[in-house]
Write a structure and sequence with these properties.
Layout (H helix, E strand, L loop, with lengths): L7 H11 L5 H14 L8 E7 L2 E6 L5 H5 L2 H12 L6 E5 L5
Parallel strand pairs: 2-3
Antiparallel strand pairs: 1-2
């Protein structure tokens, strides 16, 4: 019977992948360490919401910050590539609060 068991992490990763969430461990780390990972001006002004495929959805803390944060996407993508590897996140979508 023990041969039928598989690690929960493998099963969860498969489920997440089917939902389009290819990197659940990346999302977990982003959620826990966002202010350390994200360069200025992201920390304290935004929070990661979802990694779907290669797109990271980030929620601004205020509607007025959406356009401001969009100017910093290149620096954020560089930081994410250094942390997680090239090609893991290739697009950042900035949304206003409450519009996930």
């Amino acid at each position: 019977m023990s041969g039928d068991l598989e690690p929960v992490s493998d099963t969860l990763e498969e489920v997440f992948t089917r939902l389009g969430l290819a990197h659940p461990q990346v999302m977990a780390e982003l959620s826990q360490k966002w202010d350390d990972i994200a360069p200025s001006p992201w920390g304290g002004r935004s929070r990661p919401v979802l990694v779907k495929g290669k797109t990271l959805v980030v929620e601004a803390t205020q509607p007025s910050l959406v356009a401001f944060l969009r100017y910093g996407i290149t620096a954020l993508l560089d930081s994410l590539a250094k942390r997680f590897g090239e090609g893991v996140v290739t697009v950042v979508e900035v949304v206003p609060p409450g519009r996930r």
